[in-house]
């Protein structure tokens, strides 16, 4: 028997399940395959920095595997199938093992391969909950709420729980303490510098390859500074815990011009490719909370909720929904995504320009920028949810099928009709002005919903409520807002409708 391990670009950890299956087997007797496929990156115009991150991290991981004795075949080719077939034949592989892919399209690709060997798919261990555990939890439930799931996870793993089995701090979440608006003139509002890295020889080589690719890409390679191996990713974790975690909570929803990262962790790209494991991150943060006096529960719980709550829940929803979930379009939105999403210089609204320009140059924006600016605007303006999902998947450094489908289709666009979220995340310019400094200096007036300077966030918000009044009436949490729609003067509502129409026709 000749064992081979095929490792994908989001499985870069020595403890991943396929490698972990090699109990008492000499690494020098095992062949490993890793593939850079140009056909795969033609699926969508990925951000250049996403490609640089994944391919650089893969090459570093290949070096690490070689250093401990594995024979690594690193293929740069057009498509996966021919590379795998050639490797299986050349190495005489009879037992091909791989950690099960998270993304369904890739799982389908693998099942379609015609290989002359046994393929053993080993359950993915890069999440806290296994697929079976989440399915078992979800199956008997009459309602699906992330809050229920999150609390169950805290109990199971004894994270932020006291000796009586109660949540530390007397509450399960502290969201109300984590919504401070930005105060740029406040002397305490001084976000620390993020941990970036100078490109090494591998990163420089990959960057040149990406720049020379004959495939459509998005954004700029720019000053690439992301971590590309586990050692660097652990340094980013250290930096977050030492300099950012203590102030993370209060300002986690804030948005400030020129402050791309604030106190956010920047850890999601590394967890999503395996350089860091979610459980180790959570346990490290929880341990720091127990040993330090300068960490408040709202910051620690807020971060743990993002990883143990939302990240795990989104993957779970992806697991239990069928292949048609990605086609969901409950509101029937069909407007094409405007050009400014792909070219920020054409955006006229400052909030959109700020978030889009940041995304173009860094492949990153934080969760509130994604949800309450980009997703929110796309929702109320009526853009096609599938186009929105494809855009998010293309442009963000931490984007994968499993995380973007539920986040965009379910949460951001409410296209699943409420299976994931309890209400649409729709708001007017009032929220943008409260939680950011974007409205200052914008050509639109955040207070106006009609007139020449009316903010599109305002007239689209009310147009959205008007267009979908019948559907939204069935959503209990929307009843109060719809009553406000009834109070609007008929002539104002008609102007709102006309402004929305004019935007799409311009």
Explained architecture:
With 506 residues, this protein is mostly helical. It has helices at 17-20, 48-67, 80-91, 104-111, 131-138, 146-157, 201-211, 230-248, 268-273, 278-291, 297-320, 350-362, 367-381, 385-395, 401-412, 429-435, 456-467, 469-473, 479-486, 490-505; strands spanning 3-6, 31-37, 71-77, 95-99, 118-122. It folds into three domains: 3-122, HUPs (Rossmann fold, 3-Layer(aba) Sandwich); 131-320, Serine Threonine Protein Phosphatase 5, Tetratricopeptide repeat (Alpha Horseshoe); 326-505, DNA Cyclobutane Dipyrimidine Photolyase, subunit A, domain 3, CATH 1.10.579. It contains 20 helices and five strands. It has a five-stranded parallel sheet with strand order 3-2-1-4-5, sandwiched between helices. The longest helix is centred in the middle third of the chain and has 24 residues, at 297-320.
Top keywords for this entry?
3 domains, 506 residues, Rossmann fold, mainly alpha, DNA Cyclobutane Dipyrimidine Photolyase, subunit A, domain 3, Serine Threonine Protein Phosphatase 5, Tetratricopeptide repeat, 5 strands
């Amino acid at each position: 028997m000749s064992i081979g391990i095929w490792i994908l670009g989001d499985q870069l950890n020595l403890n991943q399940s396929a490698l972990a299956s090699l109990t008492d087997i000499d690494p020098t007797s095992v062949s490993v395959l890793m593939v850079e496929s140009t056909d795969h990156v033609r699926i969508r115009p990925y951000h250049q920095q996403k490609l640089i991150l994944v391919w650089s991290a893969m090459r570093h991981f290949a070096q690490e595997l070689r250093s401990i004795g594995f024979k690594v075949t690193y293929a740069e080719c057009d498509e996966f199938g021919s590379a795998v077939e050639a490797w299986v034949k050349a190495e005489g592989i009879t037992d091909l093992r791989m950690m099960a892919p998270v993304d369904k399209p890739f799982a389908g690709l693998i099942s379609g391969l015609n290989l002359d060997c046994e393929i053993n798919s080993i359950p993915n261990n890069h999440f806290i909950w296994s697929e079976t555990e989440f399915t078992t939890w979800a199956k008997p439930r009459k309602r699906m709420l992330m809050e229920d799931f999150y609390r169950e996870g805290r109990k199971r793993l004894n994270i932020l729980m006291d000796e009586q089995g109660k949540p530390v701090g007397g509450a399960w979440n502290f969201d109300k303490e984590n919504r401070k608006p930005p105060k740029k003139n406040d002397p305490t509002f001084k976000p620390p510098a993020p941990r970036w890295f100078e490109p090494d020889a591998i990163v420089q080589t990959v960057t040149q390859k990406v720049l020379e690719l004959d495939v459509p890409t998005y954004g700029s390679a720019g000053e690439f500074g992301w971590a590309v191996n586990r050692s660097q990713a652990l340094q980013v974790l250290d930096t977050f815990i030492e300099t950012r975690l203590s102030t993370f909570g209060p300002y986690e929803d804030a948005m400030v011009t020129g402050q791309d990262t604030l106190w956010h962790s920047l850890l999601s790209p590394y967890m999503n490719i395996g350089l860091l494991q979610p459980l180790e991150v959570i346990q490290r943060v929880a341990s720091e909370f127990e040993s330090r006096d300068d960490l408040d529960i709202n910051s620690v719980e807020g971060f743990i909720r993002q990883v143990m709550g939302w990240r795990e829940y989104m993957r779970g929803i992806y697991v239990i929904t069928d292949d048609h979930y990605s086609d969901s379009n409950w509101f029937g939105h069909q407007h094409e995504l405007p050009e400014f999403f792909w070219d920020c210089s054409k955006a006229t609204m400052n909030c959109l320009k700020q978030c889009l320009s940041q995304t173009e140059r860094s492949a990153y924006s934080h969760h509130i920028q994604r949800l309450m600016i980009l997703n929110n605007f796309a929702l109320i303006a009526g853009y096609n949810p599938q186009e929105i999902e494809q855009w998010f998947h293309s442009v963000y450094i931490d984007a994968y099928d499993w995380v973007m489908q539920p986040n965009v289709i379910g949460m951001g666009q409410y296209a699943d009709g409420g299976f994931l979220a309890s209400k649409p995340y729709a708001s007017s310019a009032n929220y943008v002005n409260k939680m950011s400094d974007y409205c200052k200096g914008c050509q639109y007036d955040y207070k106006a919903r009609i007139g020449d300077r009316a903010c599109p966030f305002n007239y689209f918000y009310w147009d959205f409520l008007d267009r979908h009044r019948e559907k939204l009436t069935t959503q209990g949490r929307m009843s109060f807002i719809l009553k406000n729609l009834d109070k609007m003067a008929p002539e104002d509502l008609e102007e709102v409708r006309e402004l929305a129409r004019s935007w799409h026709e311009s």
